[in-house]
Structures are given as C-alpha cells and as structure tokens.
Amino acid sequence: MLLSCAVSWLLTIGVSAASQQPLARPSAFDVQGHRGGRGNAVENTLPSFAWGLIDGATTLELDNGITKDGVVVVWHDEEIVASKCQDTVPAFSDDSAFPYVGKFIANLTLAQLKTLDCGSQRQSNFPLQLTYSGTRISTLQEVFDFVECVDSEHLIKWNIESKIDAAFPDRTVGVNVFVQKQHAIFAASPYKNSITYQSFDWRSLIAMKKLDPTIITSALVQYDTALMPDNTISPWLGGLNLQNFSGSSLSVKLANAAHYINASILSPDAYDSPNSLTTKEMVDQAHYLGMLIKPWTVNSLDMADNLLQWGVDGIITDYPNIIRRWVQQQGRQVAPKFPKRRVLACLEQHNRW
C-alpha cells in the first residue's frame, strides 16, 4: 500500500523509472574536490575552489543555501557556526540581527552574510588547511564568474548540492524555492551541461527532474537519512519506503530506490565505520541499473583502493591532489590541471570585499 502511494505521487509529478537513461562513463576518473578541497583550503570559498583547480580536480563539489532575500550562496551549514566564521560589523546601523554568528542562513540577508569573515579560522581536523583572512561567503554566481575567469573553455565539472533540511524544514527554505532559484542560475550559466545536482533530500531531486529532465541528478545518502531510529519512513527519501524495494541488503535497496526516482548517480557515504553504505554489491547493482556511483568523503587511500577495485566511477574527497595522484598511479586517466599562475591571478581579482 505504501509503495503504491509513493508510485502514484511520483507519477503525478512526472517521474518514471522507465525514462531512466544510462549515463555514459567518462574517460577521466572523476576526482571531486569536496567543498573545493577543504583539506587544503578553507571550505566552500573562492580560495578552496582555486586550489581545487590547481590540484587537478575533475569536478568541484559545493553546497548551496538560500538567504532571506532569496540569493543562492555557497555554504555548507544551515547556520553560521563560530568555528568557521567571525562577525565583523553590522550590515547597517542598529541591525537587531547582529551578531550574525549562530543565525540560520535562511534568516539572514546577503548583505548581512557578506560582513562575515569565513576565511581566517583553520579547522582543527584539517591541520594543513590554508586560511585566507577576510574571505567572504560567495554567491553561486560569483563562484561561476571566478571559475570562468580561469576556465574560458568551460572544462571543469560541477556537483552542486541543495542544503535543505527534510527533518527540520523551518531551518531552510523549501524544496520549490531551492529548485527554482538554483535552476535559474544553472540555466543561465555556460556550465549548465556540466552540472550534477545532488541532495540528501530526494524531494529536491524529483522536483528538479520535473522542472528540467536534462539535469543530471545524484542521490546522496547516508545511514542516518536512509533509516529512522523508530523505523518510520525517512523524510529524506521523497516518500519512498525502502522496505518495499527488493534487495538482500540496505545498500541494494537504496540503489533500487535511487534508480526509481530517475537519479543518474548514487552517492553513498564511504566512511570507515560499521554504518558505511558503500559496498561492492551496491556498486554492482547501481551499474546494473545504468547508474554511476561516486562515494563520499574518501580521505583514506586504503578505502580508495577498495573502492577502485569495486569499480566506482568517481571519488569525492577533501584532498583532490592526493586522490588524483593515486588515480594516476593506478594507471587511470585524470583531468588536466589549470595553470597555477592564471588561477591565482583570477583569485586575486575576484576574492575581494
């Protein structure tokens, strides 16, 4: 009964697994710089994307939030956390929202966010992370403009996530706002055909496919979004009940469910923990269904060895320089690097406030 209800809902919004077109495997192994490459530079900032380009990432992975005044910004967290950003001055005199640290992005305007220094603090779990004092949160359009300064031939690929909270909807704007705002920028960008749209909230993947069937979607998943502690249906999976999908394991059920919502890519966690979802049988099932599989966030070469043996199509990592070098050592093709001098000149031009 639950599956038939989910089927009816998905068909109503225009999603059909029968329309799934297998995604061709690219010649270069997809080394994705997670948040640009947060092991090497402060995450989700222009400097992090600069070093991702210098280090030869195939794809720049990043996150989007939506401000109170409807601007798409590049940031991971739902709220401004003190370990990453510092207040400077109010956006205007007598601003009752100041200080901004601790506030949700959805409750702050772009002008308020632009006062924050989000480049001065090195994260304790990334001791080699370069800091760039004074760096501001960028809009998605600003990131595209910076990369186009470097990449005039539009060679870089993108993996862009909607940071929407299915469990706490009051913390972010809703699905339709995310999809409409992001798609408008995608469609106007020269990178439109190089963008993968990813989310843990599968409702946004379904909505994006309905709006634009040509957008490549990637179903993000981890144990905590796949299964609820009380065994209820997860709010993250677009109304689907995994128990109604065939499969000998949770990983296989997830592959079948991702295919059902017409995702071209499955992106499970690959942490070294008992709850890691990436398995060889998941990879095999995803490939059988015509999907690619690109696990996250892989910072161990031992784990990377296993994943390559299992046949994954890409790896999302905080250290794209290390993973790229390792991929070359395995005899696999990698994407070219961008000239360091050109990248840093464009960074100097665009990373101003």
From TrEMBL:
SUPFAM superfamilies: PLC-like phosphodiesterases (SSF51695). Residues 29-327 form the GP-PDE domain. It comes from the Eukaryota. Transmembrane segments: none annotated. GO terms for biological process: lipid metabolic process. Residues 1-17 form the signal peptide. The keyword rRNA processing does not apply. Keywords: Signal. This is PLC-like phosphodiesterase. It comes from Mycena venus. The lineage of its organism: Eukaryota, Fungi, Dikarya, Basidiomycota, Agaricomycotina.
